[in-house]
Amino acid sequence: MNSNKLIICISIICLACLSTSLFAFDALSSFSKAVSAVGGAAVKNTAEKTVATKPASLKAGVSSNRKVVYEGYTKDMLAIKKMISSGEVGQAIKLRQKGITDPNKLDLLANLELGLMALDAEDVTLAQASFSSAERSQVAKKERGTVSSFLSGLGSAGVSTISGNEELGEYPGVGFERVLMLNYKSIAYLLEGDRNAYNVTRRAIDLQNMEKEAFDERIREAKKEIAKEEKEQKEKGAELANVGFGSIIKNQYKGSNKEASKVASAFVNPFGFYVAGVVQELDSYEDRSLRDNARISYKKALELNPKSDVIKQAIKDIKKPAPTGRRLVHVIAGDGFAPEKKLLKFDLSLGFGPPTLIELPIYEAVDSQVYRIEAQTSTGKRWARLSEVADITALALRHQKEAGPLEQLRMMTTVIRNVIEGHAWNQAAQSAGVFGSLVNSVKSERDKMVHPDTRSWTTLPSKLMAARFYVPKSVSQIKISTYNRQGKRLNSKLVKIDKGSHNIVYARSLNKTLYTASSDKMWVKMR
């Protein structure tokens, strides 16, 4: 770094110290606080000179030059995702670890990515360690009183607050991701033949309810903040309502509305109840009275996904006694990749001055070549066709749709920076005399650093699918096959299953690539 850039960076930090909220990009921070902070900085930099300003006349916002690009973390993960899709998951793990193999020394996001990749690589021990470390970090965060939340400036207010670059702070995770973290941890336990899968899935069910309540509260706070700021700025002569921030946000995200409408909210993931049903159904082989418990769990899962064929069939089968002389096989598969969190850029014209560049995070769905997944005999005869349990793509896009008020506040913050703060910076530069060029340089460098968070759990699948069926005790292997929409087989793999136990089989399909794993002996005895 040359000396000029060093001076500029130091100046950014020093100016931030004048008002710690000056550069914060917290969607729930008050718009009026931003104005006050800017005004305070301007007064200090103008040696107490009073300058009368006339509020700009705000008109309906007009967006143009829209583009969506890969930036930040999502862009960095493309190489790793390409490796996974090419069957090189072992190499992908090493690249993501960056030489650190102990999950306890890695952050939340690294452990989420590595835990899922480890399952794909049949390394259940690493998967369990990674998900456990990720869960502990979330518990510790809550105990510190810094419950992660969308756009929160708390907990990692240092560099991210000063610079406005959210990716420099600690990754908080998103509510539906934290639920999926426990879903995958329960899968790891099932593959180990460990009944602790039930305890984890119960935590996932409870967490989903808590996450929904917390998210709903943030949306209510955001709407109140928007109304409050529109009222306060109107009294100061700025008609923020004229801009139509809410309509602009809805228009920018409208392309994903159809997919988002497949679920009622981002917190209707039925996988927790489904795994509870799986565990209780296995338990019922030793205690038949538990079959009704399994039926209740499957029924609750069906309420969250009424179209799931596998859940419907489970409810139908569980009403009857388990067939004798046959083993139960559950297949759980993830297909494709979840939506990628990219950077949306567009120009916003407000009827005066140059357009304001708006940058927002945006989820975009990822296409998959896989149309059908089947569990078959070793000779290719179908045991069952997998059906959807949880639509992760729909959950992510629904979360984006419901988070509209938070993105509206983000856009309002950008406008206040560029319009009102920009005016204060200009006054500070004019008053700084010989140091005016330094002030302008500081503003320029700071603006370059302002950047929305594009981090997400990128290795998540688009969908979680499942099938359940009974096989004779003599069967020692099954085949998992994937097909495209035209019926062409993309891949197939034989999977060995324990002849002396009921079985869980895990699979991950990524176009022509297929990963599989089978469980250890289950905790329940064969009858």
TrEMBL record:
The keyword Signal applies. Keywords: Coiled coil, Signal. Residues 1-24 form the signal peptide. It comes from the Bacteria. Residues 205-239 form a coiled coil. This is PpiC domain-containing protein. It comes from Cycloclasticus zancles 78-ME.
